[in-house]
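Quick start: read one record
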Amino acid sequence: MSVNSAGEINSYYNEVFRSGNLERLLALYEPDAVLEAQPGELVRGRSAIREQLNNLLALKGELHAENQSCVEFGDLALLRADWQFTGEDPSGKPVSMGSASSKVARRQPDGTWLYIIDLPFGSNPKKA
């Protein structure tokens, strides 16, 4: 499935995350997209994003996110969502984190939307 409305990309991300499908998650990013792996640390490109998403999926956690806003300007959209994640690290230690994300998506030539900037810790970063 593809996302044909900018306002639906965050909801679709949550759905795909719950499925645990790394390739479908990765397909929501442009090839040269930027992801904030942790507060203050940016990675660029699908290869680096794949590694980060794989690490997150390995925590076998639950992601709860609620879209707060979506502002479109031409082929760009600025999105904001509040999210909370709970899971376990490989040693079994509980992991809990959450924040208010900031994301930018771009409409593709086929009308679908992909992330170009994903800042999950976009404001008020919280650490467990």
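The mean pLDDT is 91.
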